[in-house]
Amino acid sequence: MQTSEPKRALRSTASERIYGEHGGFRKLKAYQVAELCYDFTCRFCDRYVPPKDRHHDQMVQAARSGYQNIGEGSEDSATSKKLEMNLTNVAKSSLGELERDYKKHLQRRDLRLWKMGEPLFEEARALRPTTLAGAAAWVNKPGVSEPAEERAANLGAILAAQAHWLSERLLDRQAKDFEEGGGFSERLSKARKSRLSNSNGHDGPNRPRRSG
Questions:
Q1: pTM of the predicted structure, to 2 decimals
Q2: Exposed (0-12), middle (13-18) or buried (19+): which is 7, by Cβ within 10 Å?
Q3: pLDDT for 130-172, tens place per residue?
Q4: Which residues contact 175 (CB under 8 A, 6 or more apart)?
Q5: pLDDT digit string, tens, across residues 181-203
Q6: H or E stretch including 82?
Q7: How is the chain split into domains, by residue range?
Q8: Distances, alpha carbon 122 to alpha carbons 3, 125, 127, 134, 149, in Å
Q9: Cα separations (Å) of 183 from 12, 92, 179, 206?
């Protein structure tokens, strides 16, 4: 039995004019990679960072802030483009913090940080997993010489860097969208003026008079 998609609550033409396009964050590549970063980080911390170590909660919270703020900003864009951009910027900062935490973990554990241009780094960067299972399978790939913890921390840093870059690109697009389409206050004013203009057009001086 097929189930139909639930109807949108905001589906009137007035809603479209006033709120514009918003939400749909699950389709954003920045959100998808940031969410994977969160899932990956939870798994990483459960395995390699003791719960009593403050870095455990710090890394999980930074990863959570990344994807949550992108999603919340997308939803809030209906009534505030400024808030959308602010929250996306918070996400970007959190993902940058997460990348640094992964690198610091490698240093603290005396594990090797892979450098750009190295075969392992380039392999991990090109991996671009879409699921936690795919990322975990690469970390635990049979026959490799590197410790799983080293592979996991380096992949985590790379995923965080990729999510950070994508959030910067999202910020850039949001700035362009604001310049071209304005924000909520402008849409409100435009919609109200359009409504008043249409009303005046119907009741104005050209309206036919009744015969007395």
A1: 0.76
A2: exposed
A3: 999 999 999 999 999 999 999 999 999 999 999 999 999 999 9
A4: 85
A5: 655 555 445 545 555 566 665 55
A6: helix 81-108
A7: 23-138+148-174
A8: 43, 5, 8, 17, 18
A9: 19, 22, 9, 35
